[in-house]
């Protein structure tokens, strides 16, 4: 427990920290990578360069300080962090490194305003949060390693096959190199791909598992991102997977992790609506297929939005899912259809997923919603659900990358 003095000091400095949070976190990463370069291997450098990771950390720091006397409210944030850390192999000994550079960054930015009492309070608050995260991560590590086929850290796999899903998306099927069993996982979870790329060595990437658990393979479906520039890590790993990874190649993967999940063994009590934008279909497809396989008794609606048939991925698989069972209704909507897309039935609708569309095709006030896609898509869906009166507790979403606010700027 934190001392009353620490709680009071944190409350007092929260507005100041919030006003300078982005500067503090950018300074923090600069100091940490310079002082302890060994931890750089745990970070996606594309997210560093885009500013997403510092912004996400700034948001997490502000949320922690704002809830310093109500830590129970941070449960979902702690779970997100703990799952991410376990996917990457973060260990307890890394926390003091973070703490040191965070305090130094605060001193750099706040200057003389960062008194000894303030630094002591921040240090105490950070220590408590570190203990909470370390405890939860220990539980996750124990679960990952103890289950049949489970592991921690890296495990070597072989690429069994590649399947082209669209002009931009390819599915990769991986099997363990040792031929041993695979662990079970919750639909919606991701695995970590470790590739020692010459431009961004050991820069990890998380990719959602896009098929149902229980197979003898892991499948990820990867969108080729925009062409990587010589001086940026963005797109390097997806491009490498598409162009360089071939059947039979070896690759290291981290175990299934993530908190954006559905448990198919716990029957849902309300209708389920999945709303996917672009490559956001991957975790949602795993969820939908798993619920159908478990004979879920509630109605399921799956809306998939894409630009057009050229970039539409997993459409045939989704259609087949809808055709094979009466419990799921699928709708595909294109916003810029190619010539012939509508006439050939490659989409059901033309337009955007908005309030009117969701009200027309879903049971808005009764269902639980799971949505995933690019940030503008996520903002649009979140806004539409808010306008329709869907409770926040029934809205579940996943960002590919550091957590971001699902609100218009």
UniProtKB/TrEMBL annotation:
Q: Which Pfam families match?
A: FAD_binding_6 (PF00970), Globin (PF00042), NAD_binding_1 (PF00175)
Keyword set, alphabetical order: Heme, Iron, Metal-binding, NAD, NADP, Oxidoreductase, Oxygen transport, Transport
Q: Which cofactor does it need?
A: heme b
- GO MF annotation: an example: nitric oxide dioxygenase NAD(P)H activity
Reaction(s) catalysed by this chain's protein: 2 nitric oxide + NADH + 2 O2 = 2 nitrate + NAD(+) + H(+); 2 nitric oxide + NADPH + 2 O2 = 2 nitrate + NADP(+) + H(+)
Known EC number: 1.14.12.17
**Ranges of residues in domain FAD-binding FR-type:** 152-263
> Which Gene3D superfamilies did the record assign?
Globins, Nucleotide-binding domain of ferredoxin-NADP reductase (FNR) module, Translation factors
- Specify the Globin domain's residue ranges: 1-138
Asked if the record carries the keyword Aminoacyl-tRNA synthetase, the reply is: no
Q: Does the keyword Transcription regulation apply?
A: no
The family database entries (PANTHER family) matched by this protein are listed as:
FLAVOHEMOPROTEIN (PTHR43396:SF3)
Similarity comment text for this entry = In the C-terminal section; belongs to the flavoprotein pyridine nucleotide cytochrome reductase family.
NCBIfam families in alphabetical order: PRK13289.1
Name of the molecule in the record: nitric oxide dioxygenase
Organism of provenance:
Roseiconus lacunae
Query: Gene behind this chain?
Result: hmpA
């Amino acid at each position: 427990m934190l001392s009353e003095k620490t709680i009071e000091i944190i409350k007092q400095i929260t507005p100041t920290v919030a006003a300078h949070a982005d500067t503090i976190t950018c300074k923090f990463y600069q100091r940490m990578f310079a002082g302890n370069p060994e931890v750089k291997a745990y970070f996606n450098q594309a997210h560093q360069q885009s500013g997403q990771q510092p912004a996400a950390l700034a948001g997490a720091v502000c949320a922690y300080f704002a809830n310093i006397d109500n830590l129970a409210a941070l449960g979902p944030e702690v779970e997100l962090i703990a799952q991410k850390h376990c996917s990457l192999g973060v260990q307890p000994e890394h926390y003091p490194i973070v703490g040191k550079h965070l305090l130094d960054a605060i001193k750099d930015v706040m200057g003389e305003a960062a008194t000894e009492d303030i630094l002591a309070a921040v240090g105490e608050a950070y220590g408590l949060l570190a203990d909470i995260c370390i405890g939860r991560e220990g539980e996750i590590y124990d679960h990952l390693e103890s289950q049949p086929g489970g592991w921690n850290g890296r495990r070597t796999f072989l690429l069994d096959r590649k399947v082209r899903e669209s002009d931009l998306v390819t599915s990769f099927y991986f099997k363990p190199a040792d031929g041993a069993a695979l662990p079970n996982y919750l639909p919606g979870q991701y695995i970590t791909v470790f590739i020692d790329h010459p431009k961004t060595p050991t820069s990890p990437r998380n990719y959602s598992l896009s098929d149902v658990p229980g197979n003898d393979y892991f499948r990820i479906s990867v969108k080729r991102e925009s062409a990587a520039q010589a001086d940026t890590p963005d797109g390097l790993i997806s491009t490498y997977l598409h162009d360089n990874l071939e059947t039979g190649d070896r690759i290291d993967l981290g175990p299934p992790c993530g908190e954006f999940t559905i448990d198919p063994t716990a029957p849902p009590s309300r209708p389920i609506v999945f709303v996917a934008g672009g490559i956001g279909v991957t975790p949602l497809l795993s969820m939908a297929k798993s619920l159908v396989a478990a004979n879920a008794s509630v109605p399921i609606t799956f809306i998939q939005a894409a630009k057009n048939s050229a970039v539409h991925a997993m459409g045939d698989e989704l259609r087949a899912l809808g055709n094979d069972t009466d419990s799921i209704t699928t709708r595909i909507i294109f916003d810029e259809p190619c010539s012939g897309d509508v006439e050939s039935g490659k989409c059901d609708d033309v337009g955007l997923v908005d309030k009117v569309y969701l009200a027309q095709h879903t049971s808005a006030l009764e269902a639980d919603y799971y949505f995933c896609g690019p940030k503008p898509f996520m903002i649009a869906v979140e806004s539409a659900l808010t306008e329709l009166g869907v409770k926040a507790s029934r809205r579940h979403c996943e960002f590919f990358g550091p957590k971001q606010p699902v609100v218009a700027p």
